[in-house]
Design a protein that fits this description.
5 helices, 126 residues, mainly alpha, metal-binding, transmembrane, transport, Fluoride-specific ion channel FluC
Amino acid sequence: MPVVLAVSLGGGLGALARYGVGLAFPAAPGAFPWGTFVVNAAGCFLMGVLMVLATELVRAHRLVRPFLGVGVLGGFTTFSTYAVETRQLLADAPGVAVAYLIGTVLTAIVAVLAGVWLVRRLARRP
């Protein structure tokens, strides 16, 4: 039950943060949805950071990964909005849709790897 509560609380916080970004950076029809793109890229970067910290460097409490990883970052990032926006863009602006579709996936992968690399690099001892 503690894990479920940690994920639920974290998910609520992450979803609220994502909603705030969506309000701050709304996408016009046919325009590149920068808010969702940045949220997903930032969430992937932070997931890379978190996984290295929680699994390699810090002896974290057992609820840290469920709360931050599954909860906060899972609630913050959004595949559903990405899919809906891509579908709408296909109807309104197919070229933008393809750029968004491919750009998001590539950026997400690079962002995770960058987060992992950065924490491992910073953690090196002289």
